[in-house]
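Section 3.1: Structural characterization of target chains.
Under the original work plan, the team committed to producing a structural model for every single-chain target entering the pipeline before any wet-lab resources were allocated. The record below documents one such target. The sequence was received from the expression subgroup and is listed exactly as submitted; it comprises 220 residues.
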Amino acid sequence: MTQRTSFGHYYLLLLVSLLLYVSPVQASSSITVDIQAFQGSMDLSNKWSRFIDDSGNISIEQIQDKKFTLSSREMLGEGFVGGALWVKFSVKNAAYKPWLMEIGWPLIDRIDMYIVDANGYIEHDYMGQDWVYSQRKKVHQNFVWPLKLPSNDEHTIYLRVENEKSMMFFIRLWDEGAFEVSSSDEKFLYGLYFGGMLILAFYNIFIFISTRDKNYILYS
C-alpha cells in the first residue's frame, strides 16, 4: 500500500511538473507588448512566435489559424528556409503616439507586414533589399516601418519573410524621437570610421609618392 502510494505521488508530481513546463510556453505565445510601458527602444526577444511555411503559399487569412512556436532567442536565426518564415507578435498602444519597428538585417529579399486589429481588418505593406533606397518609409540601412496604432487597441503584427540566403534578424520597437537620436549617433560614428580610413589611405599614397615603396600602395 505504501509503495503504491509513493508511486502515485511520483506520477502526480511528474504530471504537475509537465503542466508547469508546458503552460508558460502556451501562455507566452500570446504575450501582448504594452508599448507605452517602455522608453526609447524595446527588443522583442521572447515576445515573438514563428511559423515556417515550407510551401511559401500560405496567405495572411490562412496563417492566422496556424500554430506558432514561441522564440526564445534575441536574434531570429533560421538558416536557409525554402518557403517563407512567418513571425507574429501583439502590441497594445495605451495612448496614441507614433512608434517605429526596425527589422535588423538589411539583406532580406522581401518582408511583408500585416497589421490585424481586433475586428479582423488587415493593413498590408512590404519592403525588400531591392527596393529603391530613397523610397523606403525611413531612410535607414535596416528596414524601418512607422506604426500608427490607435490608442487602447490591441493589434497583432505578422511578418512574412522571404530570402534566398539564411534568415537572421532582430525586431525592435522604437520611440520615434529615440530612433532619430540613435540614427544620428550611428551616422556620426560611421563618418568617423570612414573618414579615418580615407585619411589613412591618403597618408599612404603620400608616403608612396615620396618613397616609391609599393608596400604603401597595398596599405592604402
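The chain has three domains: 1-27, 31-175, 184-219.
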